[in-house]
Specification:
The protein is mainly α and 167 residues long. It has five helices and no strands. The longest helix has 47 residues.
Length: 167
């Protein structure tokens, strides 16, 4: 039985050493593919320039909830501006006798309803996110206050000597 345990331990040790050597050998042979920019620089097709332009675009991500709140506010302002521009265009078309008064009223009412729905959706999203930010700030304050306590907890350790029951 003892011989079997020794042989098993040696085999296990051998497998572990072999695995670790294989992993270090493999790490040294990893070859990175060439950068896409280098490949496109050597290409001479008209699509290569377009692909290079697409690669150069760096997407901008919002930094946090406050940035998203600002984007909602900007979108709501943009809705108001675009609604105003559409109403002005419809009014000019009606004054130029391109559409009738009834058509102009219908188009203005339709544009107004669409703008109001968009504004209400953005406003609701803004309010929900604003509430979530406020709740998270309150939660962070509560956990910060709990962590500030200077209370020390003392735990008595069991005696290291023989217990009274053992005597």
């Amino acid at each position: 039985m003892r011989r079997r345990s020794i042989v098993g331990g040696v085999l296990l040790l051998g497998v572990m050493v072999g695995t670790s050597l294989a992993q270090t050998a493999r790490r040294g042979t990893d070859v990175e593919p060439p950068a896409l920019e280098k490949i496109l620089a050597n290409a001479k097709s008209p699509a290569a320039a377009q692909l290079a332009d697409l690669i150069d675009i760096k997407p901008e991500f919002p930094l946090g909830p406050s940035d998203v709140l600002k984007e909602y506010q900007q979108a709501m302002a943009l809705i108001a501006v675009s609604m105003s521009a559409e109403v002005a265009n419809i009014s000019r078309a009606q004054e130029g006798n391109q559409i009738s008064r009834e058509q102009a009223e219908y188009l203005i009412e339709d544009r107004y309803q669409v703008a109001m729905m968009q504004y209400q959706v953005l406003s609701a999203l803004h309010d929900m996110l604003e509430q979530d930010v406020a709740e998270e700030a309150a939660r962070a304050k509560r956990t910060h206050r709990v962590g500030e306590s200077d209370t020390a907890v003392v735990v008595s350790l069991p005696a290291s000597g023989p217990s009274a029951e053992a005597k």
